[in-house]
Structures are given as C-alpha cells and as structure tokens.
Amino acid sequence: MRIAVISDIHGNATALREVLRDIDDSAVDHTYCLGDNIGYGPEPEDVIRILLERSIPSVTGNHELALKDPDFLVWFNPAARQSLEKTMAGLSDRSRNCLASLPDYISAFNCRFVHGFPPDSPTNYLFEMAPADMARIISEMTERICFIGHTHEPALLVYKEGGIERIPVDGERIFPLEPDLSYIVNAGSVGQPRDGSCPAKYVLYDSESEIIEIRHVDYDVSDTVRKIHAAGLPGRHANRLLRS
C-alpha cells in the first residue's frame, strides 16, 4: 500500500495542484492531509474545494482552531492573525462547516495522522518536545508510524532502545524503515516550506517496501506570490516563499 501525506497547504492552491499531479503519477492508494489548509495563502476556498472533490481526509491544524474558536487568534503573530481574519471573512459556509468538523487526529492502516504532535495536539511543535516526552509518547502509541506537520520542515525520528533518534534528512529523500521500530515522520509543507528550498514537500509511505520518501515538487512560486499581493495579504507570506 502506498500512502501520500500532505500538510500545511496554507491556501496555496497552485502548489497543491502540482503536488496532487505528482501523487496521481505515483500510484498512491490513499492520501491524508495534516491540516493548516488555510492561512498565509491567497486561495483557501480553492484548497478546501479541491480536498473535498478529491475526498482527501484532513485533521485540524492550529489555523483551523482559530476558525473553530476566534479567541484562539491571540495565539498568532500580527501578520498571521491578519491573514486568518481575512481568510475567515472570505470563506463560504460550506468551507467553514468543513473546517469546523475536522477531527484532531485520524488513525488508519497502523498510522496516526495529527497536525502538531501525538496523540492529538494541533498546537505542540516537534522542536518543543523533550526527548524523554517524545520517547514516552511514541512508546504509548498504538500505531507504528505517526505523521505530523506544523513545523513546515521534513523530519524523521525513530523510537529505538527506549530512546529517540533523529535521522538526518538533509539532502536525502528515501529512507528505509526497520519493521519492528516506531517512527514519527514530519511531512513538511505543501504551501509554505521552511526548510531552505522552494519546492512543495510531501511524503510517500510504501508499507510493502517499508520506505518513506520525501517528495519535492516544483510549482510556479511567482504565481502564488502575485496572488498573495493581489489579495492584500501580508507581504511577509510572499517573501517567505521566495526565501525558502
């Protein structure tokens, strides 16, 4: 079975379309989304429509939390808050209802899908977690692999001999898994990567060959940048794409 995991689309429909083309060419059986479908980007309505049309299940991200509870907006920096307020004002009722109904996590095929960190947090960042806490949480997971997003940077961690080991991903894209070990896999970001390179990122998991592959997908960044400015969104969201 081949599973595609996408995350942090952030209203970047241009990037999402190219990623889905790559997924369609990769003989994928199932696709899951790790949330933060809105915020930062210029086309949140298109992103949600595409996910619904493709029947791609998604979990709640921290940006969706602000839609569920506007008091959560204080959690964001001023630019992100401005972007979210503008995004929420322009969403259709269908999209608002869709985002408000997203679960905190999904469990399927011996995998857990959550935005921030297991078991079900949309807000906890991987880099905030102490190694001992990570080891405890992974050891308690009923699923073997947990896919997360939130940091916008691909990462791979393995629970081994009672502790956590981080597997370097710099310059590497294909990682064989050991069948008896548990893993946390950060899928990176489709819509606003922050790992130092511009392409959209997502991951493929092949349960038969026991391989994790980090996919890099080129798209027209200038198109998204132009749309961000045209939508009157904070310029820093465009500049981040250019600095990736």
How is this structure best described in words?
The chain has 244 residues and is an alpha/beta fold. It has a single domain (2-180, 209-219), classed as Metallo-dependent phosphatases (Purple Acid Phosphatase, chain A, domain 2, 4-Layer Sandwich), CATH 3.60.21.10. The chain has 8 helices and 11 strands. The strands form 2 sheets. Strands 3-4-5-9-6-7 form a 6-stranded mixed sheet. The protein is globular, with a radius of gyration of 17 Å. The model has no long low-confidence stretch (mean pLDDT 95).
SSE map:
Elements: E1 2-6, H1 13-24, E2 30-33, H2 44-53, H3 62-68, H4 78-90, H5 93-100, E3 105-108, E4 111-114, H6 131-140, E5 145-148, E6 154-160, E7 163-167, E8 174-176, E9 182-187, E10 200-206, E11 211-217, H7 221-230, H8 235-243
Parallel strand pairs: 1-2, 4-5, 5-9
Antiparallel strand pairs: 1-10, 3-4, 6-7, 6-9, 8-11, 10-11
Helix pairs in contact: 7-8
Summarize this structure as a short list of keywords or feature phrases:
6-stranded mixed sheet, alpha/beta, 244 residues
Write a compact overview of the structure shown.
It is built from eight helices and eleven strands.
Shape: globular
Can you give the helix content as a percent range?
A: 25-40%
How many E strands? 11
Stretches where pLDDT is under 50 for at least 5 consecutive residues are none
Strand order in space, largest sheet: 3-4-5-9-6-7
